[in-house]
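As the work plan foresaw, the team has encoded backbone shapes as discrete tokens. One protein thus recorded appears below exactly as we store it.

:::
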Amino acid sequence: MSSHQHLHNGPRDVDARSPDDLEGRSWPGPVYLVTWMLDQVTAHTGLLMLLGIVLYIIHWVKHRRQQQSVFQKLGIPFVPPNLITGSQDLFRKYLAIDIFDEWISKYGKVFGYYVGWSPTLVVADLDLVQQILIKDFVHFANRPKLVIDAQPVVDTVVGLRDQRWKDVRSILAPTFSMLKMKHMTGIMNGKVDELLRVINERATTGQPIEWYSTFQGLTLDVISECALAIKSDCQQEQNKNELFRAVRGFLKNALNPAILMALYFPSFAKILSIISNKFALSGRMTEIVVQNLKKVIAIRRNDLNVKTVDVLQLMMDSTETPMANGISSKESPTANGLTSSIKTRKLLTDKELIANIWIFLLGGFETTADALTYTTYLLALHPQIQERLYNEVAQVTGGSDQSLTYEEVSKMTYLEQVFNESLRLYPPVVTFVIREARQDVHVGNLFIPKDMSIIIPIWQIHRDPEHWPNPETFDPERYWPGAPAVSRKPERYLGSNSVDNKSLHQTERNLASTAFELLGYEISPCPYAAQVKSLLAPMMPLNP
């Protein structure tokens, strides 16, 4: 073979077929090429997405650690936080009172912990408490922002802030004066009479009485008629009463997964707020209350001759004709930097009116029932105090079985001592005193940055042996007129701290206790009664 032939035949070694043979070969078409390109892009996109997720997690962890370094930077002792929950998960496992007992023992009377990312300062030092709640209250008037801006709580004194909070509270405070509550004594006496019938029926069976649900029935019955304009009749058959079941269900599910999600991941809060308001996730209780109040308000405004003496009417009467822009014509600055109306006080909007009746229900339902239950339990454990209280009631009333008057109840000083001591030992809401710094502020040697939450641990302050001799002892004599006045350090006693707690609910509990004493029954603990500290005490009602 010649070299020419060798060179000529070389390429045919690669593909010895003729050009005619190549015509039948299958080459990649456009679909194949596009598919191949998409596979390559998908593979790289997956890697890029995975890389992006990893980088985001690294950034999020770094940011969360930075958020959870506030107390370390301030030099304040703090509870080491979980990256996601802070220390909030502990409150789902243990009683708040036990957690704070342990923390105060370990970290002292001033320390911090985290709710998710948010720093919360715990202050049990009375000098600092006095400065926060009294001297510098202007800097701590706000409660912490709501976790979810859900209706109707955003329009209540719990949800409102700054100037609007001050305006609304200035309207509500006179509404709940003791003088005005006096006019509702008749309604309350009727509900207390029903309570006595319930107790009589149960006492004749010889079976132990479950006091907590009994007092919940009384409390809801009073609030329903005095504030909601609803005749609930819920004391006899509670489980068949829709409102009673709805209120209990709402409180049971108050700290639901949506709230926890917003606590731990604030970016979800706005989405959850929209969903909650759009789909009315606040529950059946809110639906019943709001719809009924709208109907009653409309009826009363259309017929001015209808005048009912109740909380709703008092709040309606407290409003005045609005200015064109809804703002008073003349305002003046006050010492706390907020303004105060001179000619025309700011109005309650209908939303605020309904919302604050709604919060009145939540604020009174459990706390008043708690106070009555704990007091009854303590009287059962201390028969000598029970006997003395009975004697005072008999002396003031002359042994009459007629309905009690407001004046009679107000003369019962020992009854008030008993309740004060009961509220000292067992404050119905353990950590309700919670505030937020409106600006950077120094309290003593302590620097508190803007927006930091502050909790005053009531249970621990009320049982501090530094301020209360024999703090675990139930001793109403601490409050007798000749005893060393609690007013020397009023912040050491935080048993009654809300705008309405000293009015309607106080009158209700006094009437109930007094009437019960008139029955002449001796209250005794049943053999299997639980130690009261083991009972579940709510950490806070709505606004952690």
